[in-house]
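Hey L., structure's done. Input below.
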Amino acid sequence: MVWLVYNVCMQKFDIFNQFRDAVIITNDRREVVYKNHTFKRWFPDFSDINKFSHNANFDICPLDSANPENYSPIWNSMASRENFFARISYQNDKNKLRFFDLTSLKRGRYTIMFFTDISAQAELESFERQNRKLYERISYLENQNNNLLKIKQRAQSQAIRIALINKMSNVIRGSMDLSAILNSALSELSIMFGAYKAYYASSENDIFKIEEIYPSGQDVFSDNIEFDGEVLETISGGGISVQHVLREYLNAPSLKQPVMRIVVPVHHMQKLIGAIVLLSYQKRELSEELEILEAISSQLGSAIIRAELYQKNIKTVEQLKNALKELKETQIHLINSEKMASLGQLVAGVAHEINTPVASIKSNNAILAKFIPRIEDGEISSILADINEIDREAIQRISHMVTSLKKFVRLDEADLQDADINKELDLTLDLIRHETKNRINVVKNYGEIPLIKCYPNMLNQVFTNILVNACQAIEGCGTITITTSYVPKTLTVSIKDTGKGIEKSEIDKIFAAGYTTKGVGVGTGLGLAISAKIIEKHKGEIIVNSEPGIGTEFIITICSE
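Output:
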């Protein structure tokens, strides 16, 4: 195109109408002297060169509206003394942007400017540039996404590990049941590693004994596990052994199917106390999972020792409780025996001391009775006879009391004997007469009762404890009702008072050794505890019914066989 222009006579401008490019010619005064048809069609809003220059811009250089002559490609084309080329953009009055290759030729005093439309090419190039940038952005985002996916996967894996470890930790910390701890650990690890069988074996002198297996009900071919030297060396040093072996190697049924066996050592205080064994058909490489196994095994070692110590402590506490119970029972029996022995010795001594002067008085009264009729003075004789009769009754009463005390203690009656319970109750009432005299009305509702094989002295002690407590529970005057009855093989004795009663919260405590509601120095708290043991020895029981402000009833039942 340029060489044609060189051969064109400047006077024949109309030749430019044949050009497909837009052509505009200016003179040295920057006046427009010619526009071809294409220029008029492409730039219909053209009015003057100044505005045209203002709307044109270098493609890579923004237009400075204050100094358009410096930045406008049109001004630069006209001011240049040489041929000029630039890629420009043009924005018309409708803000439509187009791109052109500007070629400027100098011919004498004229400047010939050719505008080649490259909008489509520019758009294509722009699109390609944008496309390249987009591809670069997509590639960058894909890399970022891959990195994020890896981070997410690691985070998820880490979260799973942390969740599993926390779950195991909660189970381990929250339970003292060794079986529950082991079962939970084995079940979680089986799920994680896809194990079809998992078990825990305790270690003692390199002998591994199976303690727990998962799932429960799985067959165990031997109670003990033997590891080869390599595995034993690995787990003894704290490492995890991973082997791919055949099932027949594991003493399993002869199915030659490869199995991945994971052996996890369980240590406590650097001592191997056991091992977890996982068997899986899934052959895979282990990396991060080993951290989980190490963390769980570390916690499991402490949990196993703690649970074992707890179980031992439970057994020790139970043994101590049983020993304490036996000691208390023995103490009660000793106290009871010592009490009765001391009472028997006391009664025997008192009886001896009383019987001697009583015998002397009886002898003197007999002699006196012989001489009274010989006294001539009738008045004196009558007085002496009355005195002798009073003394005789007193002596009989004293003798009866001594006999009752001796029957009550019965130190020589250690075996079962036939006894009349009604008479034993009367005997007890005689001994506590000082508690009931002039204050308490005793009502006897005795039934027909056969002789019962029992320990009479022990039952008298029971009756005494309950009756004395009944008397002490009655403030002022009141009534004690004693009822006896018998049905085949069972004797029932009811002792009911009109005292102040017992609170419901206290009823279950009254038979406990050492428990008393009485003041300091009034009771020891052993009376009812001893009574309950005595009735238990007779294969019976004591039932208490009480209502505060109304009274209390003790119902004693004894097996007569």
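The domain at 175-286 is CATH 3.30.450.40 (Beta-Lactamase). Residues 1-10 have pLDDT under 50 and may be disordered.

-- N.
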